[in-house]
UniProtKB/TrEMBL annotation:
Keywords: Glutamine amidotransferase, Transferase. Residues 2-246 form the Glutamine amidotransferase type-2 domain. This is Class II glutamine amidotransferase. SUPFAM superfamilies: N-terminal nucleophile aminohydrolases (Ntn hydrolases). Gene3D superfamilies: Glutamine Phosphoribosylpyrophosphate, subunit 1, domain 1 (3.60.20.10). The keyword Transferase applies. One of its GO terms (molecular function) is transferase activity. InterPro entries: EgtC-like (IPR026869), Gamma-glu_amide_hydrolase (IPR052373), GATase_2_dom (IPR017932), Ntn_hydrolases_N (IPR029055).
Length: 282
């Protein structure tokens, strides 16, 4: 599985977290300790908020450890809110369009996990994406599909309820298709002001996710970038973390209930032909 980190706080150089620490994300691209695979060499990506409304993106298919441009960019870019991700493909092709993070307007999203037997229900998941958003679909992976489907469910307005609905629909599809493999989901989302991070799974093995507050900011990581005793706390399974500048970090339960795919097809039909109905609501 992939490894990622997210930061919100006082502006820092990306290299302070992505490159410099002993167990930095670049090091994790070669030697991850807690992932399903030790090597995460199927591309990488950065997303950061700067002077403009929309985040900047840099994504590449080369392994993070072998891209000199990554180190140079991280040494020059300072940001108050940024994402970084190293990818281990779960079956889809290694292309730039499949590298995380993904953006739409001010929304930024990245993911580590799996949709069990994704290719069996790929077309059904994509049916959750309305035409207005499907035009932005560039890759073939599950993360981008979940992101666009969640945007249709109201991700920009209320991230936790939107992703609960989206994951519930996907889980329902998996069950109706007889898929026994789990749906596992660790993800980070931001609109440039709030950082929302999720750790959830349909089984008892959610992907790892830790957080730490200090040195002017909040960090969320797949695995600690330095000593594990240095204040890192695991996000509890089936919880969501919400961080905003100047406010205390909150952790609260995050629940997903499987919904019927046949019912969702009708909801999607009403969405697409209802004009001003707005985002699909469960």
């Amino acid at each position: 599985m992939c490894r990622f980190l997210a930061y919100l706080g006082e502006p820092i150089f990306l290299s302070d977290l992505v490159c410099a620490p002993r167990h930095s994300l670049i090091h994790q691209s070669m030697h991850a300790d807690e992932g399903k695979t030790a090597t995460n060499g199927d591309g990488f990506g950065l997303g950061w908020y700067g002077e403009r409304e929309e985040p900047g993106l840099y994504r590449e298919i080369r392994p993070a450890w072998s891209d000199e441009n990554l180190r140079s960019l991280c040494a020059q870019v300072r940001s108050r809110l940024f994402f970084a991700h190293v990818r281990a493909s779960t079956g889809t092709s290694t292309t730039r369009a499949n590298c995380h993070p993904f953006s739409h307007g001010r929304q930024l999203f990245m993911h580590n996990g799996q949709v069990g037997d994704y290719l069996r229900i790929k077309r059904r998941i994509e049916a959750l994406i309305p035409d207005s958003l499907y035009a932005h679909r560039q890759g073939t992976g599950d993360t981008e599909a979940l992101f666009l489907a969640a945007l249709a469910d109201g991700l920009a307005e209320a991230p936790a309820p939107a992703l609960s609905r989206t994951l519930g629909r996907v889980l329902g599809m998996m069950r109706e298709a007889g898929i026994r493999a789990p749906l596992r989901f660790a993800a980070a989302h931001s609109d440039g002001e709030t950082l929302t991070c999720f750790r959830w799974s349909s089984d008892a093995h959610p992907p790892t996710l830790y957080w730490r507050e200090g040195c002017g900011g909040v960090m969320v990581v797949s695995e600690p970038v330095d000593e594990r005793g240095a204040g890192w706390q695991p996000i509890p399974p089936n919880h969501v973390l919400v961080a905003r500048r100047g406010e205390a970090v909150t952790l609260r339960p995050f629940a997903v209930t499987a919904s019927s795919f046949s019912e969702e097809k009708e909801a999607k039909r009403l969405f697409e032909f209802g004009g001003a109905l707005g985002p699909v609501r469960a």
